[in-house]
Amino acid sequence: MGEWWLAGRYRLIEELGSGGMAVVWRARDTHMHRYVAVKLLRDMYGIPGAADRFAREARTAGTLSSPHIVTVYDFGTGLLQAADPDDPHTPPTAPARPLSRHAPATPDEPVREAVYVTMELVPGRSLAKVVADEAPLPLQRVLDLARQLCDALEVAHDAEVLHRDIKPANIMASDKGVLKVLDFGIARSMKALAAGATLTRPGAVLGTAAYMSPEQANGHPADPRSDLYSTGCLLYELLTGLPPFGFGDVPSLLFRHVHVAAESPARVRDDLPDEVCDMVLALLAKNPDDRPQDATEVRRLIDAVPPQPPVPVPSVPVQAEELARRMAEVPGLAPREAVTLLRELLPEHNRVFGHDHPRTLGVRDDLAYHLGRSGEHNTAVKVLRQLVADYTRVRGREHPDTLGVRRNLAHWTAKAGDPAAAAVLLRDLVPAYVRVHGPTDVDTFKVRRELALRTGRSGDADQAVQLLQELILDMTEALDGEHRYVIEALEELAFWERRMTHTQRTG
Predict the structure, then answer these.
(1) Residues of the chain above pLDDT 70, percent
(2) DSSP notation for 59-103
């Protein structure tokens, strides 16, 4: 997608991310001569109440003033127009004819009306990315982030505004370590809550399941202590690498938030002082009355944590040698033991080598592999999705290392129970393997065979048979009719032919 112009003022340069309702762009405000973040509502006419929620987000966030809450600059409705490829720096002329509000911006219909919010562009990474890259984080860094989050929540709660969706993806850490809370998309005024106002369907549950308070999970009214529960989930993840009840299907997560007591983070990480574990467990209390009652109280608990003795930092060569020695232990460990060690070594690799160093990227790949082997398939997929993005950025989409990580993502996506999604990934991967490794390379054949398997597992036996027939012809010509890969593919072909015949008879 190329560049766009919004309201004749904002030049949309690069898409930064997207959520359920909106897409966020890095943009240039040509009036104020500064870079901003622009959030565009996807389709305000297709979702009941979406435009109202979007407007409320802008107005709510605009009332809050804190160095730890993203600043909202502007809100409105304007024309979204494709930029002229030959002159992208000049805003296009507004069309003379009326616009269809329902029409998307396409090459044939390159103009539409859009609802938008412009806000401060925060350099840095979301805490979701920080967790994926570095968790578990050093204790002092977690406490510093927690203090800043409490400062932001104090301001919001004093203004009688709840966030209701505190999670790593909604918090940025700037390059200088400054925390910023984003996305008041489901924030609500406490007065509106008390009055029973709603912009969602009755009984709707708003928030993200892995970080949702028990009262929100039950569809009951939220209050500031609900944001504090979510803060406890966030701190637990920063300290251990996973939220207190992990990831999984929504009903299971909501049940655990309501009925299952959280284990102490000390069970995962034994270097945490009692004061930190007690504070996190207090935040995760099922009954809001048993939690700290406001962000100020949480801040006092953080400040009461005794200073930890500094850890001497040896020279980089010594650290690198020690990390190599400890990484050599991983192959001999059971999967869960390997995961524990790799999570410990990952932040050290980030510190010693840097986020994008091949050794650091390799640790993340190993972590995903052992997470998958230990049964944590969904978590492995989450790690690999971000790793694919980072390999693509650092080495290119078709670098051999990137292709390997993309293949791993497809593998664990299938293991996580989604062979159809794995097949989609593999269909995109096969031509890349052909281009990079060649059509007769063994790895190319393996990816094609895996595509056939995932296609069949997703319910399309006919297509699996066709893919295997083509693969067997190519492998027989390139390898040998007696090669074990050919024999194995023939056995799989026989299986899917039987499945196809059975389907035709019973269909």
Answers:
(1) 85
(2) HHHHT---TTBPPEEEEEEEEEEEPPTT-TTSPPPPPSSPPPTT-
Active site residues: 165
* Complete DSSP assignment for 195-222: TT--SS-TT---S-GGG--HHHHTTPPP
Pairing of β 111-120 and β 72-82? antiparallel
pLDDT digits (tens, 9 = 90+) for 80-117: 888 777 677 777 766 544 444 443 444 344 567 888 88
Please report, in angstroms and rounded to a whole number, the separation of the first and last CA atoms in the chain: 43
Q: Report the SS3 class of residue 350.
A: helix
Domain 4-120 identical in fold to domain 316-506: no
How far is residue 210's CA from residue 253's CA, in Å, rounded to a whole number?
6
- Structural contact between residues 271 and 203, judged by C-beta atoms closer than 8 angstroms: no
Reported as a single tens digit per residue, the pLDDT across 241-253 is 878 987 666 787 8
Please, is 367 exposed, middle or buried when counting C-beta atoms within 10 Å of its C-beta (0-12, 13-18, 19+)? buried
CB neighbour burial string for 101-118, b if at least 16 within 10 angstroms, e if fewer: eeeebeeeebbbbbbbbb
Cα–Cα dist 368/346, whole Å: 12
Q: Please report where in the chains the tokens 């640790």 appear, as a residue.
A: 363
Query: How many C-beta neighbours within 10 Å does residue 336 have?
Result: 14
Closest by Cα among 26, 270, 231 to 127: 231
Residue with tokens 């977690």: 142
94 and 17 Cβ atoms separated by less than 8 Å: no
CB 4 within 8 A of CB 80: yes
Average pLDDT over residues 42-71: 73
CATH 3.30.200.20 is held by the domain 4-120: yes
Region 125-194+205-303: CATH code: 1.10.510.10
Calpha distance 29→182 (Å, rounded): 20
> Is 135:241 a contact under the CB 8 Å cutoff?
yes
CB atoms within 10 A of CB 408: 20
DSSP-H helix ranges across 213-292: 214-217, 224-240, 250-259, 274-283
Tokens of 67: 């160095």
Instruction: Give the separation between CA 149 and CA 181, rounded to whole angstroms.
Output: 7
Q: Give the residue-averaged pLDDT of 361-382.
A: 94
User: Any idea which residue has 């019973």 for tokens?
Assistant: 506
Say which residues have a Cβ less than 8 Å from residue 122's Cβ, sequence separation at least 6.
Answer: 37, 70, 172, 174, 180, 182
**What is the CATH T-level fold of the domain 316-506, as seen in this structure?**
1.25.40
Domain boundaries along the sequence of the chain: 4-120, 125-194+205-303, 316-506
Beta strand pairing call for 161-162 and 188-189: antiparallel
Yes or no: say if 345 and 327 are a contact pair by the CB < 8 Å rule.
Answer: yes
